[in-house]
Amino acid sequence: MPLLLEFKLGGSDVKLGEIDGCEFWMSKDQFEYWQHTQLTIGITQGRGSSFSIEIPTGFRFMIHSRMFSDDELGELEPVSFLED
Fold first, then answer.
1. Which residues touch 54 (CB under 8 Å, ≥6 apart)?
2. Integer distance in angstroms from the first to the last C-alpha of the chain?
3. Confidence of residue 76 (pLDDT cuts 50, 70, 90)
4. SS3 category, 70
5. b vs e for 47-56, b when ≥16 Cβ sit within 10 Å of the residue's Cβ?
6. What is the arithmetic mean of pLDDT over 26-43?
7. For 43-59, what is the mean pLDDT?
8. Which whole-number Å values give the CA distances from 57 to 6, 10, 16, 37, in the listed order?
9. Is the pLDDT reported for residue 73 higher than 50?
10. What residue spans define the domains of the chain?
11. What mean pLDDT is predicted for residues 1-6?
């Protein structure tokens, strides 16, 4: 049985894209910091810092990052903002 978690979104959230058909959102403040960075997100068994997936499933997120080149920045698709 798949685990479904409801995540409440608001006007301070930015949709970066989708991962395996699931929308990926972060706060505008986080986006301001990470907007020039490629994020690679995976999961692994174990506990981390109590993020949303960890306690009920026994898995944790792993995030790796690198700065985009100037060429890559020019090719990025626009992000989406939640309509208030």
1. 47, 48, 60, 61
2. 33
3. very high
4. helix
5. eeeeeeebee
6. 91
7. 72
8. 15, 25, 24, 28
9. yes
10. 38-74
11. 57
In this structure, are residues 40 and 63 in contact, taking their beta carbons and an 8 Å threshold?
A: yes
Of the candidates 19, 16, 65, the one whose C-alpha atom is nearest the C-alpha of residue 39 is: 65
Show Cβ contacts of residue 11 under 8 Å, excluding neighbours closer than 6 positions.
81, 82, 84
Q: Map 12-61 to HEC letters.
A: CEEEEEEECCEEEEEEHHHHHHHCCEEEEEEEEECCCCCCCCHHHHCEEE
The encoded tokens of residue 1 equal 């049985």
Residue 46 Rama label (left phi>0; alpha psi -120 to 50; beta) = left
Dist. CA 46–CA 59, nearest whole Å = 5
Element spanning 71, H or E:
helix 70-75
